[in-house]
Amino acid sequence: MRAVVYRGRDDLRLETLPVPQIESGELLVKVAVCGVCPTDLKKIHYGTVPPPRVFGHETSGTIVKIGPGARGFRVGDRVALHHHVPCMRCHYCRHKAFAQCAGYKRTGITAGFEPAGGGYAEYVRVMPFVLPGVVKIPPGNTFIEAAMLEPVNTVLKAVKRLRLLRGDSVLVAGQGPIGLMFTKILSLRGIRVAATDLLDARLKLALAWGARKAFQAGKKDLVHEIRASFPCLDAAIIAVPSEAAVTQATELVRGSGQVLLFAHTRKGEIGAVDFGSICMEEKDYIGSYSSDFTLQEEVAKLVFSRRLDVRQLVTHALPLDKTTEAVAIASRPATAAVKVESLKIVVDQTLES
Length: 353
Description:
- The chain has helices at 38-46, 91-94, 143-147, 149-160, 177-188, 200-208, 222-229, 243-252, 275-280, 296-304, 323-331, and strands at residues 2-8, 11-16, 27-35, 58-66, 78-80, 109-110, 123-126, 135-136, 169-173, 192-197, 213-216, 233-238, 253-261, 284-287, 316-318, 340-343.
- By secondary structure, it is of the alpha/beta class.
- It has two domains: 2-153 and 291-351, Medium-chain alcohol dehydrogenases, catalytic domain (Quinone Oxidoreductase, Chain A, domain 1, Alpha-Beta Complex), CATH 3.90.180.10; 162-287, NAD(P)-binding Rossmann-like Domain (Rossmann fold).
- The strands form three sheets. Strands 3, 4, 5, 6, 7, 8, 15 and 16 form an eight-stranded mixed sheet that branches. The chain has a six-stranded parallel sheet with strand order 11-10-9-12-13-14, sandwiched between helices.
- The longest helix is centred in the middle third of the chain and has 12 residues, at 149-160.
- It is globular.
- 46% of the residues are buried.
């Protein structure tokens, strides 16, 4: 089979690999769609993990083979995959801190080599411990929608970490695909959203996706401008890795407000934190990382009902042999490049170069 193999920092190669051999309790899935995720981009660009690997974890496809003991599935089922599932028994799982579970940190989907998602290949092996996260795709929905379940899950998990009530006001800093998902999900819950971004096109999208007002993030008087429309912010979500955005958010949220960090995934970053605000004004900093497979059913209803119509986020669809190009576009998002999907063609062979 064809696969895009990570061979080192900024080194992706289209290669021929054996189709993965499945064992008892496993699935073999022919990949249809896999999204380009910033988490994988960082690994590719900074070389944070040793090669070789096949990345790609926002994956959907069709089951083509079922190992003995894998119950509840049939050959031909269209499915969305979920590469991390916690043990549900450890200290972290008992406290619902699933992303800290040692079992969760294992990747249960591979196209070969060290398991790394494997979505940038024609076939993937799905291991037994992640089968509880697999979701069947309804007849009226697309592979692209199914591939977006994983990023939507991460956003919904983060929203649920905040103490928000209908009518509250929240700043969402950054209106890329993740920020837009935050904006839409919050607006669906009756939350008033103030959106910020550097790109005017994204600010227009934010308004279309439910933001009450959108603000240009580069303005010197941004804090005063936001306060004029939202004098009391209950929370802020930082969906862009910007220390300035964190500082502004800390200043903007009211006493007892929360600042949720979603995009600061590189360790070692040091920013200016107002410890007095945290103590005397009882402001909270919260982190949220990765997904929560216990939300899969709720996420599937949200996406497949199209209350959150993720199809509108997809601006580029490329075939497997153009994965390097898809990674490049996603790494340098232009005005129109809101979300890049690297399509591994199963049904529509016309996208192949």
